[in-house]
Hints:
Blueprint: E1 4-11, E2 14-18, H1 19-22, E3 33-36, E4 39-45, E5 50-53, H2 59-63, H3 65-69, H4 71-76, E6 79-80, H5 87-93, E7 101-105, H6 111-114, E8 124-128, H7 129-132, H8 144-149, E9 153-156, E10 159-161, E11 164-168, E12 176-180, E13 189-194, E14 199-204, H9 211-214, H10 220-225, H11 229-243, E15 250-253, H12 257-261, H13 268-272
Parallel strand pairs: 5-7, 7-8, 8-9, 14-15
Antiparallel strand pairs: 1-4, 2-3, 2-6, 4-5, 10-11, 11-12, 12-13, 13-14
Amino acid sequence: xxxxxxxFFLTSGVMKAPTFAVRPSWFINPLSVTRLANTxxxxxxxxxxxVLVDVGWSAAQCEDPARVLGRARAASLGLVVTSEDxxxxxxxxxxxSADRVKxxxxxxxxxxxxxxxxxFPNAEVICADRELRSYAHFDPAYRVADLARAGRLRPLPLxxxxxxxxxxxxxxxxxxxxxxxxxxxxxxLAVIIDAPTWLFVHxxxxxxxxxxxxxxxxxxxARFTAWRRSDLEHGHQRLRALQADACSPMLVPSHDLDVFxxxxxxxxxxLSEAPRS
Length: 277
Ligand SMILES: [Zn+2]
């Protein structure tokens, strides 16, 4: 893997959740809904290959979620997608072909984060090895059997690197480092993206919304979906420490739409192109 020349972020459609489940106050209209992003980081290497952090939904899931996911699950996720919302279609519109995606780093293996791996057959799927142990038990939110059958998983142990005692540098180049942020799932990860423009940390579902670590508290949805709540809260402490770090990294939760709106959303090469007259 070479150095990284660009990073931008896309969302694979949106999801809707009851506001009381994701916001701090109980004094909320029980009928109001909050829109959630499904944020994917797109890292562009010097040779034009791509590494994605998470991948969102597949083209088939976006085309007809009720048929592919089942009507009940699509409805319970509050999924709002069109056929244009898969990463495959969005990257294609930006001029990137699917075969350039060489790796997908999964913050964890829930379907909303890895549904789209089927659209990128050249990509290995990297996750924490302890995340895989979740698959010893049946969990309909996971699709490890499909991935394992296809021989595409590269589960990595988390060891000590540069100030972390549970981290790994998957390509050995320092541009992307993964560290454990367990609690949402057994092996959920954060991904440090050392981009030319800024230091981003994709934190997956360690929180659904930024307030959950910015002020002590955990949303109803986060508590309901957590693998282990004590680990989740330990992760929040870690995020507070990270936020206070002198290099002021930008923390990116997968599902916080406000955060997504503040991120770069097109390749910088497109931004720097002179307007056509
Ligand atoms: Zn999620």
